[in-house]
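Reviewer comment 2.1 asked that we show a complete input and output for one of the modelled complexes. We chose the zinc ion case, as it is the one discussed in the main text.
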Amino acid sequence: MHELPVIDSILKIVLRHAVENNVSRVVAIHLQVGEMSDLEDIWMQQYFDHLSKGGIADGAVLKIERTPVVLKCSDCGMSYAVNIKETPSYECPGCGSDKNTMVSGREYFIKHLEAI
Ligand SMILES: [Zn+2]
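Response of the prediction step:
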């Protein structure tokens, strides 16, 4: 259910943007979503379809691109990307430390809109 408030805020931004640009119909929304975020593509689209019904973004397709998770080592300060599907450990490639903070991976934002 955590997709719902996210989609709600994305839709509000999309609609505001569409009005400002005199768009008559939004056909696609390109989103960038961090690999670590627990937003599921399928639910995002379903909630979007539900919330956008009857509006100018009704029927728009969400095109979701995943951004990699980037960690910063707490010991040596090195930043490194990890593929969370392939890499079971988050060890620093520089010094082997497993202490780190996440630089990116949970964020989401709208890259651009396709509209007519
Ligand atoms: Zn390190």
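Helices lie at 3-20, 41-52. We note this here for comparison with the apo prediction described in Section 3.2.
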